[in-house]
Request: fold
Amino acid sequence: ATFGNLSDRLAETFKQLRTKGKLSASDVDGTVREIRRALLDADVSLDVVKEFTARVRERALGDEVNRALNPAQQVVQIVNEELVGILGGQQRRLQFAKNPPTVIMLAGLQGAGKTTLAGKLAKWLVKEGHTPILVAADLQRPNAVTQLQVVGAQAGVPVFAPEPGTGVGDPVKVARDAVAHAERALHDVVIIDTAGRLGVDAEMMKQAANIRKATNPDEVLFVIDAMIGQDAVTTAKAFQEGVDFTGVVLSKLDGDARGGAALSVASVTGRPIIFASTGEGLDDFEPFHPDRMASRILDLGDILSLIEQAQQAFDEEEALKVAEKLATETFTLDDFLKQMQQLRGAGSIKKMLGMLPGAGGLKQQLDNFDEREIVRTEAIIQSMTPAERKNPKLLNGSRRLRIARGSGMTVTDVNQLVQRFEQAAKMMKTVARGGMPQIPGMGPI
Ligand code: GDP
Reply:
């Protein structure tokens, strides 16, 4: 779907970052370069990309990341915030007139999805308790009026159109008459569908500008097809100069477009995206939320909360202590046990791993993982003498046999535990170098 590729690329970039502890300037540069490439490949306009990556870079090299418990997480958050920013920041709701009717004019190229949007908007407004009317001011395209009537019937909303057979009317007059009619008939919202062309042309712009002048709309919504790629920015600028608009509607977000150009529109024109269209049906439509769209684009699963949980399970101070112990070779089985208990305290390991994006591949491992393992580990370690816990090298055959008997386990169990401890100790070294902790007993994730 739209943004699919961009999402994958960004996820990949962050995945690499996730294995880092402290970030060096070159880590940040590498990440920013990847983000820049991913955005450009997704058709986001160069100016927007430049500004975006410059901001991310500046913040990622700054103190907020330096001081963060988990720098990678902080960078993901920065990218998310900046993405919300280029998408317009706060959600911008449709504005209604103080004195009805509210007039909403739709503008955009032919095929952008204006007529479909008119129906979607009408249906949505009815649900919100309004009494809209649709206006057919597209008198250029032969079947535009009929199409609007079909859509109106589907939405259960009346359509104001020139009488059939009266020939080509004057769209400006139709629009003006429609507003007057809405006042009399107590329709509180007037939605004006206007003509589009395949490309931007002066005459169409003039007509749209005249309709705007004649009806003084509360909102002029520029409908842009997410599939049109880099042309989106040029088209948006042309409409901004020719008619100007108060908000943007992204249509066809369900398609296979790269979508980045549509993302640039809000940033380039300074006009907010108000709605998103995601299909041909009248219900495939929703108010646009910059934050939700950003999360969708980043598509990191619950990566943020995963990082957070791993962080809690393995808090910084403890990690530092362990690192110290490793440095002095004093990481013991007691520490190992404490870590396991900490992990258990952090909640279900399965649940935590389930939040990893792409956890599907982990299913086997998840199913094999048995939390009773921790209980068995406790039993074995508690059957050891303090000296053995401090120095597992003492554990010869007879000691292992004694421990197995004492804990009700087999020697194989004891051997496996010692092996896992050694793996964990190795893993702790990675952590000490600033890597991500893995789960003892899970093997590498
Ligand atoms: P207009 O010329 O701007 O009025 O565009 P239309 O409303 O006639 O839409 C052009 C085509 O795009 C039609 O076939 C619509 O069914 C289709 N369309 C409109 N919006 C969407 C959308 O959000 N997703 C998809 N997949 N198709 C859409």
